[in-house]
Amino acid sequence: MTTLRRDTLGDMPDGISVPSYDRATLTPGIVHIGLGNFHRAHQAWYLHRLMQDGKAHDWAIIGAGVRPADARMRETLLAQDGLTTLIELDPAGKSAEITGSMIGFVPVEDGNGALIAQMADPAIRIVSLTVTEGGYYRNADGGFDAEHPDIRHDAANPEAPRTAFGAIVAALKARRASGAGSFTCQSCDNLQGNGDILRETVIGLARLDDPDLAGWIESHATFPNAMVDCIVPATGAAELTLVREFGIDDKAPVTHENFRQWVIEDRFCAGRPPWEDAGATLTDDVHDYEAMKLRCLNAGHQVISNAGELLSLATIADCMAHPTIRALFRRVEMDEIVPHVSPVPGMTPEAYVDLIETRFANPQIRDTVRRVAFDGSSRHPGFLLPVIRDALAAANPIDGLALVEALWARMCEGTREDGSVIEPNDPHWTTLNAVAIAAQDDPAAWLGQRAIYGDLGADTRFAEAFARWHRAIRANGAEAAIRAYLES
């Protein structure tokens, strides 16, 4: 067993790809906030591929975070010199490589002083983030939530902010003062218009304290939209065992599927690595790519995950092996989602659903139902409800989508159909659970959550379909309700 460190790379088992570049010569160009598994399997991997080809050696990543979990990740990754073992789970066989594009990790501390100082360094030209769909401080109407306590704190304490966005604003203020110029702010989260949302959050926060600074950021910073795609499970005991089977002692390995996609608007105010040389697509309009991925893949995850949770299925591959759930996925996608998705160069929505179906069914990917179903209060409004709105406006079918929402409501009651307890799985679980229990007698209570549904609960066609499926699930169970939909 070889412990993963810079000085042991030459001792790795045969067949393990390691960095061919001299990591001691790398210099930083990117600060990334949120060093989770997805970032290390996606953006950091694209950069590693460039470095393997002798490129982008002045664009190395400095990790950062603002949560207690980030401090634990910092300790783990620094102990192995920022190296990560990536394990590709292809149905035809597993393979492993070690990536080295991250060269440091700023201290995680109250007030975020170290993070602000690092971002204020003129060498940093991109600040990127993976802070989850729910991490951008949006209000019930989808706009910037200027009244959130974290935002109010940062507006009142701009030199010692609590949030990543407050730290970005403080760093940009320092750069304006020093003449270093702006950096590009790059979201790598699954949000339609993620760059636009990041821009609204950063500028909206700056405007609360310093309107002149907000105007400077608006004029000088760039916020490219992007679509990111790679299925990356959480790391648990099985993944730690797997990396040891490769002969590597890595405390934070990452498993991933054999598919990646990154489509990026080419708007970088301070330069960028040649992402396209590593397989990314650079474009002036990422909207259709975003819509296809979010509506087909991310919404597709929500179509099956709540049903899987209720039926005690462990993984997404288990859901796809369940004939009824797989049929639900196929019909909702083709009948109710695809009509509201435009093709992109080289890919029709129908072909994309076929691709997703194969990816979801990969038995090597242990992507848990619990992970995919997490934070439904952000994911349903982000991925499913926009499709429902479009379908209602076009007088198109919404019966299966209403069933999916009813399955989520039933899941939030907190028990599976075998009687086992579903542990809290949403930042707003206490509220969701209380409303789900109230909806047992009054299904309209669920749709009355305006922070999630807005005015959708007042749409008679959607409300009636939801109530019908909610009653059917409670009377006969999830599988029987799904079968009824499939036979309709």
TrEMBL record:
GO terms for molecular function: oxidoreductase activity, acting on the CH-OH group of donors, NAD or NADP as acceptor. Keywords: Oxidoreductase. InterPro entries: 6-PGluconate_DH-like_C_sf, 6PGD_dom2, Mannitol_DH, Mannitol_DH/Oxidoreductase, Mannitol_DH_C, Mannitol_DH_N, NAD(P)-bd_dom_sf. It comes from the Bacteria. Residues 285-468 form the Mannitol dehydrogenase C-terminal domain. Pfam families: Mannitol_dh, Mannitol_dh_C. Residues 29-276 form the Mannitol dehydrogenase N-terminal domain. The keyword Oxidoreductase applies. This is Mannitol dehydrogenase family protein. It comes from Palleronia sediminis.
